[in-house]
């Protein structure tokens, strides 16, 4: 069973807001004491928080669906529903949050760093909060809004200053065990290290972290071996240390060949924007400071091989150290060289001027001014107008469509926002389909603003709207049938009158105005 997971797909959803309450205060001798319905509580958020005690994403691998608590419904006597509890998900230091398209949403570094992965939904208002001079006792309340629901990708990138890279069984785990208090698994077979190991090294007055990354092999960039899957753990490192095996048992391997292969694999690896310097630029792995540690010089053949390849490595510009994890030979000099690089890297970060983000000038549009936009589409050869915007979509989610007064309140809100004016400008005609929101959304057969406003509600029982009752909005098909029925009725009436005229009851045709009689001829 896996004990270390550094990449998971997490399905998170915020809590749904509680519904508002419809209630009227009733006391002795005060049968109508006014509305007293409380508001619904907001849904809980899902928050990712860096926790030092967390070292893996294994829990989210087994339980990838996480949902925050819903808000409570409002109650009478002005009692509000309880707020949903926030769901805190602990993640290791260095966790990067991405969406399904690979876009970086957050880089969580440092104890306590947080990111709201899914916000909770807003609770609905009770009728006491909706009362006004025109709506003294509303017979409706607003519904709670569902919380955000999304899929995110969590990737763990270890926080280390120096990374040890090299072929399997090159001695990386032995080195980190000899230089720090870390105790990784060590054995004499390839791919012993299956997870990245971290060790803290003290060299003089510099204290830094070294990461032991699972071994790389040729073709790792194409998915071979394990190393390429864990290279994300070295993206934050200031420098790399090539650990070369000078006592390899394979006859087709040598330190120079191993170095060339590893360098090619590092060159193929693309570092994403989750690691960036003070200037916001990303330095490729193969362009960062690198040291070479010729390991296993305690073996006679290993020392001979180290002396043979050292001149060539120094000719290429590398700082070379002959070390032995077994006898600790050369480890002190290697540690001080690492500390020097770490000190310079930290100094450059501290001395770099803060990066000033260039302000983005946003073009004014309808959405920024009025909170919505209207897009004209076509469905089944009929015009369709789609209303998009946070406010209209949220208002529709809050509306109880089984309550006429709530529907009338929604119509008043949309009219006040300016939706109907823009529909007129967009060319909408009475009876055209209007959709609020993406996808199927909520479809209306649009009719211009209802006569009057909320001042007419005084004559309506609670929970009803006299405007909707008296001025119901027929569908397009009903309008077509009514129009055809009127035309047929007029044609039948004309035919009846014409028949009466021909029978001598009338002296002129019903079509007299359209077909006047001819002028009499001379002698007639």
UniProtKB/TrEMBL annotation:
Molecular functions (GO terms): GTP binding; GTPase activity; magnesium ion binding
EC number(s) given by UniProt: 3.6.5.-
Cofactors that this protein relies on: Mg(2+)
Domain of life: Bacteria
GO cellular component terms attached to this protein's record: cytoplasm
Keywords: Cytoplasm, GTP-binding, Hydrolase, Magnesium, Metal-binding, Nucleotide-binding
Domain OBG-type G: 160-343
Subcellular location: Cytoplasm
Record domain OCT: where: 364-448
Region feature (Disordered): 472-498, 505-524
GO biological process: one example: ribosome biogenesis
Keyword Magnesium part of the UniProt annotation: yes
Residues that hold GTP according to the record: 166-173, 191-195, 212-215, 295-298, 324-326
Domain Obg: 2-159
InterPro entries: G_OBG, GTP-bd, GTP-bd_Obg/CgtA, GTP-bd_prot_GTP1/OBG_C_sf, GTP1-OBG_CS, GTP1_OBG_dom, GTP1_OBG_dom_sf, OBG_GTPase
Binding site for Mg(2+): 173, 193
Enzyme class: hydrolase
Family designation: Belongs to the TRAFAC class OBG-HflX-like GTPase superfamily. OBG GTPase family.
Subunit structure: Monomer.
Function (record text): An essential GTPase which binds GTP, GDP and possibly (p)ppGpp with moderate affinity, with high nucleotide exchange rates and a fairly low GTP hydrolysis rate. Plays a role in control of the cell cycle, stress response, ribosome biogenesis and in those bacteria that undergo differentiation, in morphogenesis control.
NCBIfam families: Obg_CgtA, Obg_CgtA_exten, PRK12296.1, PRK12297.1, PRK12299.1
Name of the protein in its database record: GTPase Obg
Species this protein is from: Arthrobacter sunyaminii
């Amino acid at each position: 069973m896996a004990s270390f997971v550094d990449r998971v797909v997490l399905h998170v959803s915020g809590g749904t807001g509680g519904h508002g309450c419809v209630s009227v205060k009733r006391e002795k001798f005060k049968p109508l004491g006014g509305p007293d319905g409380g508001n619904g509580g907001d849904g809980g958020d899902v928050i990712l928080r860096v926790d030092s005690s967390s070292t893996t994403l294994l829990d989210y691998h087994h339980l990838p669906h996480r949902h925050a608590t819903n808000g409570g419904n409002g109650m009478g006597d002005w009692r509000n529903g309880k707020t949903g509890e926030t769901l805190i998900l602990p993640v290791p230091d260095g966790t990067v949050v991405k969406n399904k398209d690979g876009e970086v949403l957050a880089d969580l570094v440092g104890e306590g760093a947080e990111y709201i992965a899914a916000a909770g939904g807003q609770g609905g208002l009770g009728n006491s909060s909706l009362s006004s001079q025109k709506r003294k006792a509303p017979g409706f309340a607003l519904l709670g809004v569902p919380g955000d629901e999304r899929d995110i990708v969590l990737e763990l990138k270890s926080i280390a200053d120096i990374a040890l890279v090299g072929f399997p069984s090159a001695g990386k785990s032995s080195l980190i065990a000899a230089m720090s208090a870390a105790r990784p698994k060590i054995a004499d077979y390839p791919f012993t290290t299956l997870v990245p190991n971290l060790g803290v090294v003290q060299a003089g007055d510099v204290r830094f972290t070294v990461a032991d990354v699972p071994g790389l092999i040729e073709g790792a960039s194409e998915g071979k071996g394990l190393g390429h899957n864990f290279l994300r753990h070295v993206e934050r490192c200031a420098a790399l240390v090539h650990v070369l095996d000078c006592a390899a048992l394979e006859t087709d391997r040598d330190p120079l060949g191993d170095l060339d292969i590893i360098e090619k694999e590092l060159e193929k690896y693309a570092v994403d924007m989750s690691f960036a310097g003070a200037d916001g630029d990303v330095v490729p792995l193969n362009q960062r400071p690198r040291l070479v540690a010729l390991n296993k010089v305690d073996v006679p053949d290993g020392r001979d091989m180290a002396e043979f390849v050292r001149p060539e490595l120094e000719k290429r510009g590398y700082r070379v150290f002959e070390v032995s994890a077994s006898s600790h030979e050369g480890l002190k000099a290697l540690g001080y060289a690492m500390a020097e690089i770490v000190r310079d890297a930290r100094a450059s970060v501290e001395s770099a001027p803060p990066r000033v983000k260039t302000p983005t000038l946003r073009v004014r549009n309808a959405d920024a001014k009025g909170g919505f936009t209207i897009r004209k589409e076509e469905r089944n050869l009929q015009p369709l107008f789609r209303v998009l915007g946070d406010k209209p979509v949220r208002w529709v989610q809050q509306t109880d469509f089984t309550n006429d007064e709530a529907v009338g309140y929604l119509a008043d809100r949309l009219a006040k926002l300016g939706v109907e004016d823009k529909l007129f400008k967009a060319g909408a005609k009475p009876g055209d389909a209007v959709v609020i929101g993406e996808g199927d959304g909520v479809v209306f057969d649009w009719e211009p603003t209802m006569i009057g406003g909320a001042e007419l509600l005084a004559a309506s029982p609670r929970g009803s709207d006299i405007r909707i009752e008296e001025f119901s909005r027929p569908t397009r098909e009903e309008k077509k049938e009514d129009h055809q029925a009127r035309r047929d009725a007029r044609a039948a009436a004309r035919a009846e009158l014409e028949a009466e005229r021909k029978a001598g009851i009338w002296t002129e045709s019903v079509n007299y105005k359209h077909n006047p009689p001819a002028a009499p001829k001379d002698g007639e």
